[in-house]
Amino acid sequence: MHSSKTDMGVRRFGAVNWLGTWTLARREVLRFMNVWSQTIMGPLVNAGLFLLIFTIAIGPTRGDVMGVPFMVFLAPGIMTMTVIQNAFANTSSSIASAKVGGNIVDTLMPPLSALELLVGYIAGAVARGMIVAVVITAGAMWLIGMPMIHPPWALVFVVLGSILMGALGMVAAVFANKFDQLSAISNFLVTPLAFLSGTFYSIEALPPFLQTLCHWNPFFYIIDGVRFGTIGVSDSNPWLGLCVVALWSAIVLAIVWNWLRTGYRMKA
């Protein structure tokens, strides 16, 4: 009898609430799919406008960059920038809306552990990032002939980038008590880091000091890794980029997990 009780206790301790985790992940996916014209078509239109503007303004006079036409070089950067912005927006807007609306307790009350909550939210961010990546990549391959030299590398960096940005979105939402605070974090931190990470240029064109700063920016490694996966060239070793992005992802995920476990600022 004692052994049976112990076994049951171990099973309960080690059990995972798969249904609850799946339900949260499904809710996060349905939340952005219900407004697909904003979350899917909007990024596609914005990426198309970036490519169109650069084609008209710079394309005719710009030579090859890293051995490929400028527009082909530019497309992976624009795609990755759009992916990371959307992954960040998915988790940050979801948690911030729940906090401001006062219904965050509906997510915290069910029997979900901190890890299960984290997996559910991050799954939504990765799903949104992947859908945006597929749509923009298909459009770029069709319109400008963007290649796909190393698809596994591109996939790995899109997924890792979505995970990192989804976790950072949760960090921002935990600290933000109002939507204008969340917007400030996005406008003054996420967007500048995304733009100053080799999205529109090779960092070899920068002065040495700025190149050093770029190498401290994890966004640079995400964009550079995706660029390696698509056009086959990059500013840094993709294995180094993989280690850096994975390390940053692990650190931020650990921080968010601890906050979810303790309830830090979640009801503010």
TrEMBL record:
Entry-linked Pfam families: ABC2_membrane
One Gene Ontology CC term in the entry: ATP-binding cassette (ABC) transporter complex
Cited InterPro entries: ABC-2_transport_permease (IPR052522), ABC2_TM (IPR013525), ABC2_TM_bact-type (IPR047817), ABC_2_transport (IPR000412)
UniProt keywords, alphabetically: Cell membrane, Membrane, Transmembrane, Transmembrane helix, Transport
Localization per record: Cell inner membrane; Membrane
Record membrane topology: Multi-pass membrane protein
Molecular function GO labels: ABC-type transporter activity
Residues annotated as transmembrane: 35-58, 70-89, 118-142, 154-175, 182-203, 239-260
Family (UniProt): Belongs to the ABC-2 integral membrane protein family.
Protein name per the record: Transport permease protein
